[in-house]
Amino acid sequence: MGLKILTEHINVPGIETLEVYRKHGGYKSVEKAIKTMTPDEVVEEVKTSGLRGRGGAGFPTGMKWSFLAKPEGVPRYLVCNADESEPGTFKDRWFMEKNPHALIEGMITSSFALGANTSYIYIRGELLFVLRILEKAIAEAYAAGLLGKNILGSGYDLDLHVAPGGGAYICGEETALLESLEGKRGNPRNKPPFPAVKGLFQCPTVVNNVETISAVPWIVNNGGAEYAKIGIGRSTGTKLISASGNINKPGVYEIELGVPVEEFIYSEEYCGGIWKGKQLKAVVPGGSSVPILPAELILKTAAGEPRLMSYESLSDGGFVSGSMLGSGAFIVFDEDQCIVRNTWNYARFYHHESCGQCSPCREGTGWMERVLHRIEYGHGHQQDIDLLVSVAKQIEGNTICPLGDAAAWPVAAAIRHFRHEFEWHINNPQEATAPGAVYRGQPAAVTA
Amino acid sequence: MAKVTIDGIEIEVEDGTTILQAARQIGGSVVPPAMCYYGPLKGSGGKCRVCLVKVTQGSAKDTRPMPKLVASCITQVQDGMVVENTTNEEVLNARKGIVEMLLINHPLDCPVCDQAGECSLQDLSFEHGVSATRYEEERRTFNKVDLGPYIQLHMTRCILCYRCVYTADQITAKRVHGVLGRGDAAEIGTYIENVIDNDFSGNVIDVCPVGALTDKTWRFKNRVWFTKPMDAHRDCPTCSGKVTLWARGEEVLRVTARKDQYNEVEEFICNTCRFDKKEVTDWTIEGPRHIDRASVISANHYELPVVNVPIVPNLPKSTEKQLPQK
């Protein structure tokens, strides 16, 4: 059994109440931070811990915190990004639903470290039931004097609000989230200025993922150096993985970073192997926006070393033969899954969720979806494959926010690794459009 | 002050200037095109991505190149920055790709479009586009909508530059005009089917880079290149009254604000000047307007200004004007 940091007490009955949560050591970090530490010391601990953003980009949290501008007389804000809507990702919802106080504790400690007196949890609009759980927990925390004026008699004030979004994927992008939180249309902002300088209401703001913030209490309690010992290399600590797809035991698992992918898929402790003993075909290791990898490349890197569940190992080989850890949504495909159909499905999602602000993403996502739809339904031409690659390239890197990249990568990667399958679809439209038809040949060789 | 090199030409500009503005100070072919950025409107820019350029050296202190192409209209210059626009293959390819994207849902109905001849998208696709399209699917279409008695919205042609939204927001009170929907289903709308009713609403027509917003008093009256642009003014209680008249013979067909070579208006004008004053006698004519844009208009006889040859006979001496000699 690996070390559990976030999920240690998650199955204790009644952990969602303040009483039980405190009985299991809850809110110790608030007392420790506020009573015995200065805000800068907390930031230093987080820096030492090597904690990296768990929302997808993996940017070092301590460094992000130290970039926060601190002009005199201007309020600062901490915003928790709970707008988890990437296909395949469900760790934050599960975590907040089970253990809301862990997030609130993290919010108080982190807000203290950043000197924020008002903080927000921006939660996905569809998760109304989680919003109610959080609001109940926040009310308990207010009643216990952990939130509000003069927390634990220290003179530090903090107000914590939960704001629901309207159900748009784009509002998970930090600047679109801030626009939405301000009550505007959720369009990403042009950067610079970055949120650390001008964020919410034009004030310095830090936006962090639920899991990142929830890891802070442990770091404060046990020290950053202790946290840095967990994991492998620069991927320190533990990570929640939302495992889904054709596996025996889908669900959320907390892993120590550095677990081999093979062990994660096949061991009884985690996914428990492929459903019905079938063959592994491909894995999307970090949520729908990261490149898909065929079985031989997900288990071993191009150099033949075993692939590990860590930021570095999963991205080994760049996009030619690697992928990304992303938000930790581990989607497994068995031999009976059609990559073309899956790619079309992802493209449809990004087409639907593009905000329509900048031209490459607005027009390109729709274009890719229509071409993939055509191929999937047996009306593709041979040149469509190159067309898709070219459109994906025209979008990638030329947009305001990363949604354009997120839409382009899965399409480009699917063609890179499964070109044969696309060609088979185009050349055999009748066979390919029969119900349950799947290409059973070999995947394309890896080319640089 | 910051020294910046664009396509090998060095220029010193104020701190906080954007790359696009610095390029415009140099002028000529190094100026990146702009479909959404509009100088007089605060917050515009960054959306159409046609002004993307390559920064091969971030600044004198940090000589690393920027990893991605940057939108020149919103990126501020740093001292010692080196920018490549037309000299960089990557930039030209990206721009060509974006022009293609802008055109896939555009109806290409230039032969019946009133904007033809002074359309930014037309110029841009002529310069960077390809003659054939790779897009086979059905194009997005909308019905035409009347936004009040003077303005018609033809959303099919729109490229969602947001200029009209900023105009409505920044120069008119009681904004009813915004973007509804998202992705390629996003559309300009007046929620719900409101009439744009204020004194400066007509300016949304001037800022539109394509033929999505057109002047109903001018629609289908004539082609732009057959009309003669003239500077004129009148004593207007609401606005500055400085306009460009577009006339054919002695008939004033259209009134617009005066625009510079980048299509940016010098001063916004009111609806009375724009829609109601269509008689020559309403105006004091100053002389021909030199249209200095890459447009078919500059192919007409007004390409070079002719000094003080009266277009309308018997004008008072006070209207004579010293025009710059080219």
Automatic annotation (TrEMBL), chain A:
<dbReference type="GO" id="GO:0046872">
    <property type="term" value="F:metal ion binding"/>
</dbReference>
<keyword id="KW-0285">Flavoprotein</keyword>
<keyword id="KW-0874">Quinone</keyword>
<dbReference type="GO" id="GO:0045333">
    <property type="term" value="P:cellular respiration"/>
</dbReference>
<protein>
    <recommendedName>
        <fullName>NADH-quinone oxidoreductase subunit F</fullName>
        <ecNumber>7.1.1.-</ecNumber>
    </recommendedName>
</protein>
<dbReference type="Pfam" id="PF01512">
    <property type="entry name" value="Complex1_51K"/>
</dbReference>
<keyword id="KW-0411">Iron-sulfur</keyword>
<dbReference type="GO" id="GO:0003954">
    <property type="term" value="F:NADH dehydrogenase activity"/>
</dbReference>
<feature type="domain" description="NADH-ubiquinone oxidoreductase 51kDa subunit iron-sulphur binding">
    <location>
        <begin position="340"/>
        <end position="385"/>
    </location>
</feature>
<dbReference type="Pfam" id="PF22461">
    <property type="entry name" value="SLBB_2"/>
</dbReference>
<keyword id="KW-0560">Oxidoreductase</keyword>
<keyword id="KW-0520">NAD</keyword>
<dbReference type="InterPro" id="IPR001949">
    <property type="entry name" value="NADH-UbQ_OxRdtase_51kDa_CS"/>
</dbReference>
<dbReference type="InterPro" id="IPR011538">
    <property type="entry name" value="Nuo51_FMN-bd"/>
</dbReference>
<dbReference type="GO" id="GO:0051287">
    <property type="term" value="F:NAD binding"/>
</dbReference>
<dbReference type="GO" id="GO:0051539">
    <property type="term" value="F:4 iron, 4 sulfur cluster binding"/>
</dbReference>
<dbReference type="InterPro" id="IPR037207">
    <property type="entry name" value="Nuop51_4Fe4S-bd_sf"/>
</dbReference>
<dbReference type="InterPro" id="IPR054765">
    <property type="entry name" value="SLBB_dom"/>
</dbReference>
<dbReference type="GO" id="GO:0008137">
    <property type="term" value="F:NADH dehydrogenase (ubiquinone) activity"/>
</dbReference>
<keyword id="KW-0288">FMN</keyword>
<comment type="similarity">
    <text>Belongs to the complex I 51 kDa subunit family.</text>
</comment>
<keyword id="KW-0408">Iron</keyword>
Automatic annotation (TrEMBL), chain B:
<dbReference type="GO" id="GO:0016020">
    <property type="term" value="C:membrane"/>
</dbReference>
<protein>
    <submittedName>
        <fullName>Fe-S-binding domain-containing protein</fullName>
    </submittedName>
</protein>
<comment type="similarity">
    <text>Belongs to the complex I 75 kDa subunit family.</text>
</comment>
<keyword id="KW-0520">NAD</keyword>
<keyword id="KW-0411">Iron-sulfur</keyword>
<keyword id="KW-0001">2Fe-2S</keyword>
<feature type="domain" description="2Fe-2S ferredoxin-type">
    <location>
        <begin position="2"/>
        <end position="89"/>
    </location>
</feature>
<dbReference type="Pfam" id="PF22117">
    <property type="entry name" value="Fer4_Nqo3"/>
</dbReference>
<feature type="domain" description="4Fe-4S His(Cys)3-ligated-type">
    <location>
        <begin position="90"/>
        <end position="129"/>
    </location>
</feature>
<keyword id="KW-0472">Membrane</keyword>
<keyword id="KW-0004">4Fe-4S</keyword>
<keyword id="KW-0408">Iron</keyword>
<dbReference type="GO" id="GO:0016491">
    <property type="term" value="F:oxidoreductase activity"/>
</dbReference>
<dbReference type="InterPro" id="IPR050123">
    <property type="entry name" value="Prok_molybdopt-oxidoreductase"/>
</dbReference>
<dbReference type="GO" id="GO:0051537">
    <property type="term" value="F:2 iron, 2 sulfur cluster binding"/>
</dbReference>
<dbReference type="GO" id="GO:0051539">
    <property type="term" value="F:4 iron, 4 sulfur cluster binding"/>
</dbReference>
<dbReference type="InterPro" id="IPR036010">
    <property type="entry name" value="2Fe-2S_ferredoxin-like_sf"/>
</dbReference>
<dbReference type="GO" id="GO:0046872">
    <property type="term" value="F:metal ion binding"/>
</dbReference>
<dbReference type="Pfam" id="PF10588">
    <property type="entry name" value="NADH-G_4Fe-4S_3"/>
</dbReference>
<dbReference type="Pfam" id="PF13510">
    <property type="entry name" value="Fer2_4"/>
</dbReference>
<keyword id="KW-0479">Metal-binding</keyword>
<keyword id="KW-1278">Translocase</keyword>
